[in-house]
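**Folding the chain**
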Amino acid sequence: MLRYAIPIAALLVATALPATAQDHGRPAALVGMQPLPETETPDIDALLRAHWRAYYNSGARHGFFRDQVRAGRIDLNEDGQMELLLLIDSPDWQGDRGRPLLVAHWTARGWAAIGWGFADSDGVFVTTERAKGWATIETPTQWLHWTGSAYRAEDKPGQ
């Protein structure tokens, strides 16, 4: 009987200990990062100009155009309104952690940036983890956590 009691006790102790790695939830949805539509999108163009004025629609070094932007929409806080994620999908913008990712929320004045990170076009997920009602975003190299007013990027181990 004792030979069964020791392994069972060890298992009970091991499951009671906190996990060594922080749990950020399971991926719940892939955010489809698609090219911008061919039709005009003045609201998205305004957001791109606001944050990349020297580069968007520019022939300058590291300049990029609409065809090098990917966009995805998903409701991050379950309020019935979709948030917008934009990715600069240009080789000039590739870094060790990916390419720039902007998270925006619709306001009375248009899109407002609420977070920044790095991603690639086929690796942006929303996880089951929530903070104050907002979903955590997972990319290949980062987690983006809601802080109460914006998303904060946390590099994954080894990044």
User: Anything to note?
Assistant: Helices lie at 2-16, 42-51. Strands lie at 27-30, 34-35, 69-74, 83-88, 99-107, 110-119, 125-131, 134-138, 142-146, 151-155. The chain has two helices and ten strands. The radius of gyration is 20 Å.
